[in-house]
Amino acid sequence: MRDQMDYVQAAKALQHFLLLSSFPVGVRFSEKEDLPEKARRPTKTVGHPLAACQGVALARTLGWTVGFLKEDHACPPSFLIFGLDEKAEEIDYGEMLTPLYGNSPELCESSNEYLVTLPMGKYKSMAVAPLQKNVFEPDLILIYGNPAQISRLVQGALYHRGGAITSSFMGRNSCTSELVAPMVKDQCQVIVPGSGERVFALTQDTEMCFSFPVSWLKDIVSGLEATHQLGAMRYPTPFQGMRERPQFPEKYRSMLEKLDLDQ
């Protein structure tokens, strides 16, 4: 397991320290069409293709194991992002995205330069499943949470490694930051989910995503535990105001004086 801790125990630890409202999701890319035995393919299970973000949503909220072959993908940019079809390289994405995400094809194309993509034709299948099901060894892990939970993951990730986590944001094509950038860069990513993921995968307005290569898992869980034990960095946030002296209105203070309380 690449010198990693047990995935079932890791999922339990993440839930303990973060109180997550959805399952951490493991993702595996394969150079073969070898999906897990009980994986549900969109074209066969729901009768039509789905976007990758929808597959992740089904895994993290319903606990499904979802498998994608080329024909299971519905989102047009996915064929470029995941390197599924050479014809995708011929599409004028600047024109396609105008005026949805920019007021000219040139501006949209300039944003596309920041898309991180998988090598064309290398991977034939993608599987996603709750980490705790341990149905395959993942390449990367996705965790959804509110900003405070994501902040704790950042703290955990840096505790043993230092430095900083850098990410880029375009408000679209979240899948490239969630599913591709961690593999290509071998780095953690903080993601603000884009419009497509919110519209189609029902990602909530309060949710962000933290994605990382599986090689970071052991350090992240250990870092969460270490910072949690120190007390100041926990989830829920231990607000200092809960331990400070309350500032009451004047009439309340007068009542305390009448009670002869030494405060």
What does this 3D model show about the protein?
The chain is an alpha+beta fold and 263 residues long. The protein has one domain (7-236). It has helices at residues 7-18, 42-45, 52-62, 78-81, 93-96, 105-112, 147-159, 174-185, 195-201, 217-230, 250-258, and strands at residues 25-30, 66-68, 125-130, 140-145, 189-191, 208-213. It has a six-stranded antiparallel β-sheet with strand order 2-3-1-4-6-5. Helix 1 packs parallel to helix 10 (217-230) and helix 7 (147-159) crosses helix 10 (217-230). The longest helix has 14 residues, at 217-230. The chain is globular. The N and C termini lie far apart (59 Å).
Key attributes of the depicted protein:
263 residues, alpha+beta, 11 helices, 37% helix, globular
Topology:
Blueprint: H1 7-18, E1 25-30, H2 42-45, H3 52-62, E2 66-68, H4 78-81, H5 93-96, H6 105-112, E3 125-130, E4 140-145, H7 147-159, H8 174-185, E5 189-191, H9 195-201, E6 208-213, H10 217-230, H11 250-258
Antiparallel strand pairs: 1-3, 1-4, 2-3, 4-6, 5-6
Helix pairs in contact: 1-10, 7-10
